[in-house]
Amino acid sequence: MTEPSQKSILTTRQGHPVRDNQSLRSVGERGPATLENYQFIEKITHFDRERIPERVVHARGTGAHGYFEAYGTIGGEPATKYTRAKVLTQAGKKTPLFVRFSTVIGSKDSPETARDPRGFAVKFYTEEGNWDLVGNNLRIFFIRDAIKFPDMIHAFKPDPVTNRQEAWRFYDFVQHHPEALHMVTWVKSPWGIPANYRHMEGSSVNTYKLVNDEGEAVLAKFSWVPKQGVKNLTSPEAAKIQAEEVGHATKDLYEAIERGDYPEWEFCVQVMADGEHPELDFDPLDDTKRWPEDQFPLLPIGRMVLNRNVDNFFAEIEQSAFGTGVLVDGIDFSDDKMLQGRTLSYSDTQRYRVGPNYLQLPINAPKVKAHTNQRDGQMAYRVDEAGSNKHVNYEPSSQGGLHEAPQPGKDYHQYVEGHLGRYQTTYTQSDYKQAGDRYRSFEDWERDDLINNMVADMKACPEDIALRMVWHWWHCDEDYGSRVAEGAGIDLKKALALPPLPGKPAPGERRSGPTYTSGQREEGTQQGADRMSLAK
């Protein structure tokens, strides 16, 4: 292998050579991620500022107001068994909310018939402050490490020279990331074009934790199931709509609410014991994988109704701002590396796009009064209430300033031990398995539409990319790869003769975990035992 020239070596904006552009630094393979991820922070915060004032992603969208009504139960048991979040535990409690639906890649005026994931962002205005649940319609994503997000979006966005979305750029990225095969299989099927927003599922995508009064936690994934049913479009159906209307989904939602046909979704959660799960062939924190519903059923916990359109599109929809870090007590972060990266990126984007005081805007402000010591900044038009002494904007103070709130229950303490480094997951066999399972689960007409879309894309790609993609699809399912190769005129034997991707295990193999010397491992184990002893 020839050494790359100095000119072709990736660096940071400080000129430092980037030796690993695939993984966040984390404590052990499963995390959590660490704050000193300078390379990631530099990369993601620059990416957050690439568009002014339009959103970098999710630029095209619409929204509506409504309410959430909690059932007070999870799987037939009191919700308090799993969580102390009041928004979920009090049966019959109605919480006002705002939802923004969107496409991902297109600009603000792009068509809503685009083959693209759909954003599904919900802002609950709870009595304990806002809770933002920010996800999409497909329950999974293309990548599992947040450091890859700018690269992915750059590859999916228009070519910086031609200003056109090019299939070869999309698949050039995908061919190097087998974990994306599952999401691509969904997106290139009819599920990639929802008929409208009312007949669309929603999901948190990322894994969170529910925490109860005793400080006990379970892993959780949230889903929205439309009571109107799910409807999708084939490519010909989408093309017919786009010929007459580029904003058909916005129109459909607005008109349905105006005539009193209020869309409704059931809110469901999947739960799993916290911790590692060696019995599974995937990591539950990997957001490119779905939790099988036969093992982890969707448990209803409430319903959402959208019953009011906005009064002003710009003020309420364009300026609405969401963040995955906006949680309420009883709902917590998991070590999902995409979630941890999004939590920095989303709020950073809003401060840049809307301004540091974006939470003062009515659409973003909590319904309960905010009491902070944060001050000033661009476009500040009020000061949060700050205790009985307006001279004191710091804490602690004996002079009437703000003070910390009491703990509502036992704190959740997660024990973390591991070697700090950059890790790629050892769970790789499911990158092909779940994509193949999905292909086989489709109805015949869905598979036909998927193959037609994939064939058209492969014909637009250079031979080396098309061969590698056929290799990937064949390892997901032999029929899948063979049909794409036949339709696109690709030599299947030539494709299957390709070696596995450099640095990645062959499909079906499990990557070996990181290696340590016996001294390193024993030292780490003893240090962990010492810490556990001190904690007791």
TrEMBL record:
Entry's EC annotation: 1.11.1.6
SUPFAM superfamilies, sorted: Heme-dependent catalase-like
Active-site annotation: H58, N136
Domain Catalase core: 11-403
GO biological process: one example: response to hydrogen peroxide
Bias-annotated ranges (Polar residues): 1-25
Cofactor(s) required, per the database record: heme
A GO term, aspect molecular function: catalase activity
Matches recorded under CDD domains: catalase_clade_1
Family matches, as SMART domains: Catalase (SM01060)
Disordered as annotated region, ranges: 1-29, 496-536
Listed Pfam families: Catalase, Catalase-rel
InterPro entries (UniProt xref): Catalase (IPR018028), Catalase_AS (IPR024708), Catalase_clade1/3 (IPR024711), Catalase_core (IPR011614), Catalase_immune_responsive (IPR010582), Catalase_sf (IPR020835)
Keywords: Heme, Hydrogen peroxide, Iron, Metal-binding, Oxidoreductase, Peroxidase
Top-tier EC class: oxidoreductase
Residues binding heme, per UniProt: Y346
Gene Ontology CC, one term: cytoplasm
Function: Decomposes hydrogen peroxide into water and oxygen; serves to protect cells from the toxic effects of hydrogen peroxide.
Similarity remark: Belongs to the catalase family.
Protein name: Catalase
